[in-house]
Amino acid sequence: LHQSKLDFFCKLGYAKLDICKVLENLGQEALEDDVLKELIRMGSKPQALESQAQPSPLKLVARGSCSTSPGLKWLGEDESDSPDHLRPIVIDGSNVAMSHGNKEVFSCWGIQLAVDWFRERGHTYIKVFVPLWRKEPPRQDSPIADQHILEELEKQSILVYTPSRKVKGKRVVCYDDRYIVKVAYEKDGVIVSNDHYRDLQNENPEWKWFIEQRLLMYSFVSNRFMPPDDPLGRHGPTLSNFLSKKPVLPEPKWQPCPYGKKCTYGNKCKFYHPERPHQAQLSVADELRAKTKGPLGLGKEEERRNRSP
Prior knowledge:
single chain, 309 residues, two-stranded parallel sheet, alpha/beta, Rossmann fold
């Protein structure tokens, strides 16, 4: 009896010495509730609670390491929502700014709206490419609105200027689209643009596949950046799966058939039939034929036997 009680309270995490003291004071016949009350009165705590009460020492983790403490998962952290599982974002700054400015003004506020949208989702790698000549003072033929936003995004290491220079008064601009596609391809990320980059698709077959599969188009609705919920069409992935390295497959949701037992579609019916243990079944007409076929067949065999001498 003494050993069984000792084992019981040891499993609860109490110290063996404290348990022995209480059993000596109360006697071997003491009830478990009384022993527990005495242990609590003495101030004895289970080892599991003591370890939780004491703050665990901070562990230094090397930069770039993916190791995480097991406690995070216990707290309910979803791996799919962590920044490591979200794809890098490469934004075509000129396309976004001109789209927000109704193709008349280079609106830097549109770039900020797009960056904020991805930031709120948890993306940590966001790069915006804009030609260097957009730093110059605005002219009548190329108006720019909220130009100070470009400086702020550059300080945050989000905005990258593609090279451009003047030769004999003429501006020589490097092709910024190539930068956008190249960086997104190397980072295995997503291109944010309404441009299809057809010239670059023809230039490189690998880029062609990448542009087709990783181009995220968008719209601006009342200063609101809105990408589609189905970036690759109705039968493609959802937006959250499109932006994630590890897509989450939806659980099958069985919708009951509105016709119930009267349904005549059989195995072609896409709805759920609780009365059918195996969903794939014959149609009702075929099922009736199969049922009537058996007894009719047996009757014919008996007739033949009776007629034969």
